[in-house]
Specification:
Blueprint: H1 4-16, H2 20-42, H3 56-92
Protein name: Trafficking protein particle complex subunit 12
């Protein structure tokens, strides 16, 4: 199993290689996966949607962990969009000619 931080790093790397659209696509995909995991946990299922028996304590701990991951992803996506907005502002600013 790949840790969430590695998945997030994989999604963010293209922005540093001048591929902002690829990074944005990966971030949105990761967000979709996180939301699907949250939905499965809220239904009392495992993260992947399989039927298992979870105690209430395990379910709450997993839910909190997944919520933290979604919050981290949202913060990362927000930072990326700010960076993209700044780059667009610079490219549309007054020319030096």
């Amino acid at each position: 199993m790949v840790p969430f931080s590695m998945r997030l790093l994989h999604a963010e790397l293209p922005q540093y290689l001048a591929k902002p659209q690829e990074a944005l696509d990966r971030l949105y995909h990761l967000k979709t996966v996180c939301l699907a995991i949250l939905e499965n946990l809220e239904k009392g299922l495992a993260e992947n949607g399989s039927i298992i028996t979870l105690t209430q304590d395990n379910r709450q701990g997993r839910h909190a962990s997944t919520q933290r991951d979604v919050n981290g992803l949202a913060a990362s996506l927000s930072g990326f969009l700010r960076h993209l907005n700044a780059a667009l502002f610079e490219s549309c600013g007054p020319s030096n000619t």
